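Protein modeling request. Please complete all fields; requests missing the sequence field cannot be processed.
Requester role: graduate student
Desired output: 3D structure, token encoding
Chains: 1
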Amino acid sequence: MKIPVLYYHKIDYPKKEAAYKGLYVTPEQFGRQMALLKFLGYKTVGPEEILSFVKGHKLTVKKPVMITFDDGYENNFLNAYPVLKKSGFTSLIFISSGFIGKKGAVSDEREKVPEDFLNKKEITVMSEDGFFIGSHGINHYYLDRIEEGVLAGELIASKAYLENVTGRPVDFFSYPFGAYNANVMRAVKKAGYLGAFTTARGKVGVGDNSYELKRIPVNGYNTIFNFLYKIIFLQ
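Delivered output (235 residues):
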């Protein structure tokens, strides 16, 4: 068995000026996708269960799936959180801590479309409701391009800040832009994270590197049939 770990960015309607409209999954699309997962009998698992599975321990869940979000957009709270709650699902949200509470800010130099980001209250509400908070660094840098000292700061300070906001351990990381190398992985481990997620396409299997966990991208161009194929057949 392998576990599908889905990753999203924005649950919202694409902005006309957006260069990467695929990053937007509409609320209606997301609702249909979660309804399908529930109908098929999938249950969401958390990052610690993923880590346990990778290390060879059996899961109690027969059809596990994990749902993740990158960047920490406010629309995750406004449009995804209610749907997930209604479905009985949880998710892991990787937040760029430097953007918390910002309105009309740009975190992706390629996109250049202003977005609103999660604030402390919204993060706390989800965390207290059983949702998981992970780090996506501070400034959404390409971590494989920055100096060692800056890298350490991105990893350590974001972790500490998010733990202060939630009052809970922040043990998992997601590489911004999916950019990492052996040095970045070592730094992530040294900073105290238990695992890290990439943008490499595929499912999580027993024996995988805990700091190089694969995920399955879900974008706005996916039909419900594309989504179903990724869940069931993609390896």
